[in-house]
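>> received
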Amino acid sequence: MHVMLARAELTGNRPEQAIVELRKALAADPRNGDAHYYLWLTTKTQAQEEYQKLFAMAPDYYRVYQLALLILDPLVRLHAAQRRM
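>> returned
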């Protein structure tokens, strides 16, 4: 039920309320895969929006580069692992 409510909140562009519902779903069932999935999607989207704001505000700020490295690191590791295969 909480996941369905969260999806409705996301459709209505209310991510904060969706996160509340998803956390309730996880409190009731920590192994709820759908709740984890939608929580990840929601927080990832919010993080991307914050990064874009930071980049637009201060593109030369060192934190912009730190975040870019955090984003790129998993991709670099994946590429390296694929090359070793």
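>> The CA atoms of residues 58 and 64 lie 8 Å apart.
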